[in-house]
Structure formats: structure tokens, C-alpha cells
Amino acid sequence: MKRRKFDLAAAPGKAAAGVDDRFQVATPLRRLLNKVFPDHWSFLLGEIALFSFIVLLLTGVFLTFFFEPSMTEVIYNGSYAPLRGTPMSAAYASSLDISFEVRGGLIMRQMHHWAALLFMAAIVVHMLRVFFTGAFRKPRETNWIIGSLLFWVGFLAGFTGYSLPDDGLSGTGLRIASAIMLSIPVIGSWVTSSIFGGEFPGTIIISRFFIAHVLLIPALLVALISVHLGLVFKQKHTQWPGPGRTNGNVVGERMFPRYAIKQGGFFMIVFGVIALMGGLFQINPIWLFGPYEAWVVSAASQPDWYVMFLDGSTRLMPAWQINIPIGDGYVIPPLFWPTVVLPGILVGLSTLYPFLEARHLKDYKSHNLLQRPRDVPARTAVGAMAVAFYLVLTLSGANDVIADKFQISLNAMTWAGRIGLLIAPPIAYYVTYRLCLGLQQHDREVLAHGVETGIIRRLPDGRFVEVHQPLSAAQEHGDGHGALEYTGWVVPKKMNRLGALGPAVRGFFYPIEKPVEAPVSPGHPPVEPRPEREEISSGEPRR
Amino acid sequence: MSTHTEHQAQQGREPLDVNTPGLTRFDIVREGARRDDIEIVHYEPQVVSGSKAERRLVRLVAWLFLLSGLAATAFLVVYIWWPWEYAPGRGSDKWYTPLLGLTLGLSLLGIGFGILTWGKKLLPKEVSIQDRHEGAVSPDDRSITGQTMLYMADELGVKRRPLLGISLLAGLAPVGAVAAAPLVGGLISNPHKNNQMFTTGFAPAEGGQKVRLVREDGRPVRPSDISAGGQLTVFPGIEHGISNRHADSPTLLIHLRDEDAQKSRQANERVGHGDYMWGNYAAFSKICTHAGCPASLYEQQTNRLLCPCHQSQFLITDNARPVFGPASRRLPQLPIEVDSEGFFVAKSDFTETVGPDFWERP
Fold first, then answer.
1. Is the minimum CB–CB distance between A74 and chain B shorter than 8 Å?
2. Are B247 and A294 within 8 A, CB to CB?
């Protein structure tokens, strides 16, 4: 019998052939490897959210091994001396144990919290990018809706997670949440009682929040994120306009290897930054807040940043109570408007925006090319209005801290917020609109007349003019060159953008390559040292 | 804009035979891309192989990877051997978490920047153009799919046999509700059970025994315990009175100065609370009528009580009327007196609903 020889070099090829025989993956795999992605730094903001989510899953699983979601009263007897002997819920005690008794537990807790904050921040910034560049237009409305849902589901994930340790600060937040549910007309008390299993705080809310936080909400997030990414993949990414880029193509890099490598590196960097933050910056030091007790609160108790706008709207709301004089009389408390109605309106407006804009502009075409914010002043100004509205609310969520640090009256801060909420958005709209028009005009100016060179020339008749470098070749035209068409992309506005200066010399301490000579126009003589200046005088001798 | 401008040249293209001898691997890659309607239009190495620049970049990436390994090792060393257990006043445990963060962060950043440099600087730069195939589905295809689905409806014959459709709806709707019933039925809880929303721990016991006001440590309170202008958080002197089980019971007992007490009594008369105070002492619910936070910042000079959550302010001398902020309702007042032993007791429960407002509050 002939001895079969094992050929190591051919093994991977044989294995691959075997796999392909069974699953027929060669063609789809090649398509995947070859898929082209357009590249721009602003396309990576959503990735930060995705990567933070992965870190959240990793650290979150660790935390579940040690957290006890129970409100059973225990007497703390751990190593944190100031709280020893204090009655508290098992949830709070186990959160303290994660911070003090579990090796490396504190950094996991802090990384989890920082990753959550980063997750929400990245979602918001990504959403702003998508909004201001018009990436939400047809065919991507569905993904816009999923994205805005992701914000609100993330909000819920954050709030439920924040409430779990059952410390003094989060318990107060939970108390406010119960009041918000109570304020809903007709069904409020039934909703609250059903969720809390009786009167606040009850004994079950932490375990209900726990299962929501570790199973239901993450499952929903994973599902939404998968559809979100799948649609990006299916519909192909938008791209900026530019040379060779049309509505019908994608200009960029193939996914493998370079694009994927960059993504992998970026993930590691996001992960690393979260690790640094989790280790170096303290967040939510629950041992300082003590267990939740209904009668204890401290000033300057702020929620996480993404909840602050709701806190702000609640603070600014005037005490308008609506009484309905039927039967025994019914009440709509003022709390209802800023905490239930306002978020409702925000969800509705944000999800519907793509359709509202398409309807308004009667634009039902598919758009794969992005728009620069300046080219769509109305949308950009509406976005600025929304940002101004949000900022006033968020700042008002910390108005007691601002009042304290800057020695301002607290009531003045509230009034500033109320007035600011009404006037800041229109001002933002107007200013942004004018800025956009100004930027547009400047682009057109440069395209028509060229880039400012900084060279001042004196004309024979005594006038001074600045020399402009035209962007297009000379033409029989009024001023000797032709105006260029605006293509929706950056217009060079500095001479070194036109290659008029030599490229920067590379190397940190010493040049690693011979510097390239700066290009000199053939018509120009080499620059000579300036001749001694003569004093310009009026002819009369100076006294 | 036509969607097929980019690759018109590709449409009628003869596919390259990949078995042709002499083809480079890149030729085959380019052919593969072309078969996916991708044209690699620009492909340029960023570094000349063997150049000083390349060696420098390779060294940099290698250093980053080694740094990463070093930091990871340091992480393990710190994780295992650093004295991390918390003990008051020791100090070394304070450095544990920062050191873990620093070493873990550095090792991850090392890998991250290493791979990024490798990918961004050492790999060739390319520009590829892929056709989007937008609107690639032909009207025919749409029509065929639509007809297929309509044909399925035909096969089911719901139109010809309407009873099937009606009975399906009528029969299965309750089945759907069955899925929801246990969830709703299990969770639902009557908010008015035992009148819980309208009573607090200060409600007199069965025999009419009045409830004492006690401190956080459980001791009852005498009038002499609070000096004029002072205030004290008190709880119902019942079992679990000082716990979250009676989260709506915490009350603020305030000893007003003479002139403030005078004003306060007049204000109380106006709202029909003439006999709620005892001497210069008044008691108001500590639970804000706005969102339920404890309104606990008492400004002695102005007799204002501020809730730190949303800055509602209540004027105590005007029967805790909300004077600023989002609260719309007075803090409920607890009628108090002193019992035969000289301790404060609640004459009755609060006569108004304690805590945040809701729809059916009478």
C-alpha cells in the first residue's frame, strides 16, 4: 500500500475546497471581501456607539455574576467601614461588594458606567451627523427611525441600570420616575401601582428592572442594532460628493483588508479609552450616597447626562395644574407635560422628520450623496434650533449647580431657562441660516474669483488690490478666467490647499526623506531679499 | 442621473480566464472585483518596500505591539499581587483601580494604534468604485413577486369562502388576547387597595391610639428638643415607620419663632387648619407634592422650604404654599398635639393626599 503523504502547504486550500463543496460560500464571501465602503471620519461616529455597546455587554455580564437584584433588607457588614451596621437593600449591599470585595469589580463597574455614557453620547453625535448631512433621506428613512428608537431604548437601558444599585441618588431618581408615571391622566396610578407592585417603592421594582436591564432591553438593542447595521450593509453607505462620485456608485475602499483593519484598530482604541476612563475617573461613587431612604436627598443631585434634559424641562415647567371639575374632581399635574408629553412630541418629531422634509420639498427621489450643512440652510437651521432647545434644557438640569458655582440666584436661573427655552431656538435658527448663506456665498466667490494669496499689489492709479489665484484656467471672460461650478464639496480657500506650498517635511526629530522642493511658477522670478526701503515722505522736511 | 454610467464598459465585458498562465495574484483579485461590479481605479503602495520609511513604520508598529504586551503583563501583575483589599486609611488600595485602568487602557491602545498604523500607513492606498445597483429590480420582477403573492391569496380562496376569513378573525383574536392576559393580569395591582394612596403611617391605630412622632433613631420628640427656628425630620412611631415601607410618611416638624408662628396661625385659619399647630410647632409632609423628592432644604430666615430635585419652594408661614418652581400644591399639614407624657403625637392622619399629584386625587 502506498503511504499517503500529508502535504501541509496544500491543507488550507483543501479544507477551503471542502467547506465550499458543502456550503457554496466562495462567491458570497468574495462579494463580502470586496464590498466597497466610502471613507470619512464622520462615518465612524456610529461605530463608537457600537463598540461601546460591545464593552457594555462584556462588563455587564461580569457584573451580573456578583449583583443581587433584591430589595430584602440586610445589615451591611462589609469592609467599607462608614456604612457598617447600616440597614440597606441586598441590591445596594451587593453593589458595595462589587466595589470593595470583588477583585477588579470597581473598574468593571466604572467601565460599564462610562461605556453607557459614551454609548449615549455617540448615538447623539452620530444622529447629528446623519441629520445635518441629509443621510436620513430616501432610501434610508427606516434606518433613521431605528436609530432614533435606539436612542430611546438606550435611554431606558441607562435609566434601569442606573437604578439597580438602589443607592440614595438613584432611589431619588426612581421616586421621580414613579411620580412621572403617576402624573399620566386616568391610568397613572394604575400604571405606577402595577409596575412597582403596589405603593412606591414596594419590594419588587429592583428585580423587575434587573430583568429588563439584563435581558429584555439588551435583546431589543441587539435586534435593533443588527437591523440597523444590516440596512447600512444592504443599502450601501452614503458618500460625500466629489470627483467620480455619483448617486449611483460607491467610491472608497474594499472592506478587506484595509478598511476592516482600521475598524478593528478603532474598536481597540474605543475600548482602551473606556478602560482608561473606568480606571482613572471616578463615576457614581455609590458608597458616598448611602442606601436609598425616602427622607434623604442632597443638593446638586443630577442624573446621568442624557436624562438631564428631562430634569431641566421639569424644573422649568411653570406650576400649571389643570383641574377638571367633574364628580369629585380630577387633576392633570404640571409634571405630566415636561416628562410625558414632551418626550412623546420629541419621539414623534424626530421619527417623522424624513417624511416631513420630503413632503415639504416634494422630493421623493433616492439620495446617496450627502449634502454639506451649508447647502441646506433651512434644515441646518432647524437642527440648530433643536440643539439650542436641547442645550437650554440640559443646562437647566444643572441650574442649581450653576447657580451655586457662579453665585447666581436659583430663581433667576430658572427664569433664564424659561425665557431661554423660548428665545434661544429662534435665535439659533436665524444665526445658523445666515451663517449658511454666508458660507455658501464665500464658496461661490472663491470659485468665481480664486483664492486669496495675501499678496497686495499697487495699481498704477494708486489703488491697492489683493491678488487672487483663480481656480480654473484662463478663459476669454471679463476678468480673464472662468467661474467654476459648485459641486457640493469643499472649495479650497488657502494657497497651500492648492499645492502652492511644499508638502510638510516628515519625521519627528530629523527628516526621514529629502524635503520636496516647493513648486515655483515658471513665470515668477525667485524671491529676492527686499531692497532697503526708502522712507516715503511728503517732500517737506520733518520738523 | 443614470445608475449605470459607471460600468457600462463592464456590462459587455468578456470575463477573464483566471487560469491564464502569467496572471499575477493582483490580476485575479481585480478580476474578482470586476465580477462584483467593482473597479479598482487607483492602487498605490504608500511605502517603497525596503525603504527607510518602511523600516521606520515597521519598527513603530512592533514597538506598539510590544508596549501593549508589556502593559498587559503589568495589568496581570497588578491584578494578582497588588494589595487591593479596602481598609480604612491604608491607601494602597486606592491605587488599584487607577493602575488597572492605566495598564489595561495602555495595552488596548497599544494594539489599537499598532493595527491602525499597520493598516493606514503600510497597506497600499486604493480607490475602488462599486456600482450601487439602485433601482436594479426590474418592474417585471416586482410584478412577478406581487402576482405570486396574490396567487397565494387565490389559492387560499378567502374571497370565495368569506366564512373562513371571518371565523379566523373571530376565533383567533381571543387567542391573541390569551397571550397578553397573564402578563397584564399578573402585573396589574390596584392602587387603591387598603386606601394606600391616601393614608400614611400617621393614621391612628384601630383603637384610636394616636401615633407618636419619632426621630430617625426611634426616640419620641418633646417640644423642648427643637430650638426656635429649628426643624427635625420625624416619622410615625409604628413598626417599620422609619423605613421605605412608609416612604410617604416622613414629616418635617418645625419650631417657628414667635412672629412667624403668629403669621403661620393666621394662614392656617384661612385654609381651615386652625388647630393643626401646637404652640409654635407646625408639621408638614416632607414629600414634595411635585415629584415626591424629600423637600428638605429649610431656609430659616425666610421660612422657605426648597426641594433640591426641581427647586420647588414652599412658604412655611403661608401654610406651605408653593411660591416658586413647578410644584402646584401645598405640602399637606399634619395636625399635631402633645400627649400626656409630653411627647408629640399626630391628632389624625394627614387630611390631604401626601406626595406627587395624580389624576383621581380628590
1. no
2. yes
**How far apart, in whole angstroms, are the C-alpha atoms of residue A67 and residue A167?**
14
pLDDT at A485: 86
Name the pLDDT band for A479 (thresholds 50, 70, 90).
Answer: low
Look at B112 and A266 and tell me if their CB atoms are within 8 Å.
Answer: yes
**Is A198 a member of any domain?**
yes
Question: Cell 525596503 appears where?
Answer: B50
Of B209, B206, B207, B236, the closest CA to residue B221 belongs to B236
Best of A199, A240, A328 to mutate (most B CBs within 10 Å, chain B): A199
**DSSP 3-state assignment of A456?**
strand
Closest CA to A400 of B326, B313, B309: B309
- Residues from chain B that touch A366, judged by Cβ atoms under 8 A, are 134-135
Give the closest-approach CA distance of A45 to chain B in angstroms: 17
> Which set of grid coordinates corresponds to residue B237?
412611631
Q: Is residue A54 part of a domain?
A: yes
Point out the residue among A104, A194, A251 whose CB comes nearest to the CB of B188.
A194
Mean pLDDT, chain A, rounded, equals: 90
Whole domain around residue A461: which residue ranges?
446-498
Cβ–Cβ below 8 Å for A248 and B6: yes
A434 found inside a domain: no
**DSSP characters for A13-61?**
HHHHHHHHHHH--HHHHHHHHH-EE---GGGGHHHHHHHHHHHHHHHHH
CA-CA distance, A241 to B3, in Å (whole number)?
A: 15
Could B109 and A189 be called an inter-chain contact, meaning their C-beta atoms sit closer than 8 Å? no
- DSSP state letter for A480: S
Domain limit, last residue, from A483, A498, A513: A498
Q: Is a pLDDT exceeding 80 seen at residue A543?
A: no
Work out the minimum CA distance from A538 to partner chain B, whole angstroms: 60
Query: Does the beta-carbon distance from B101 to A197 stay under 8 Å?
Result: no
Asked if the C-beta of A418 comes within 8 angstroms of chain B's C-beta atoms, the answer is no
Is pLDDT larger for residue A514 or for residue B131?
B131
* Partner-chain contact B235 A295, CB within 8 Å: yes
pLDDT at A337: 95
Number of separate domains in chain A: 2
Residues 6+ apart with CB under 8 A from A513: A506, A507, B52, B53
pTM recorded for the entire structure: 0.91
A451 touches chain B (CB under 8 A): no
pLDDT tens digit sequence for A246-269:
999 999 999 988 999 999 999 999
Does B191 contact A192 at a Cβ distance shorter than 8 Å?
yes
Distance CA A107, CA A275 (A): 8
Structural domain contains residue A439: no
Which among B85, B111, B359 has the least Cβ separation from residue A189? B359
Tens digits of per-residue pLDDT, A67-112? Answer: 999 999 999 999 999 999 999 999 999 999 999 999 999 999 999 9
**pLDDT at residue number B1:** 33
Correct CATH for B213-346 of 3.40.50.1480, 1.50.10.20, 2.102.10.10, 2.60.40.1120? 2.102.10.10
**What CATH number is given to the structural domain containing A89?**
1.20.810.10
Q: Is A84 at the interface with chain B, CB within 8 A?
A: no
User: Domain residue spans in chain B?
Assistant: 52-123, 213-346
Percent with pLDDT over 90 in chain A: 76
Query: Count of A–B CB contacts within 8 Å?
Result: 318
Torsion of CA A84, A88, A91, A93, to 10 degrees: 0
Point out the residue among A189, A249, A264 whose CB comes nearest to the CB of B6. A249
A192 interfaces chain B, CB cutoff of 8 Å: yes
Which range has the worst mean pLDDT, A315-324, A497-506, B76-85?
A497-506
Chain-centroid distance, C-alpha B16: 58
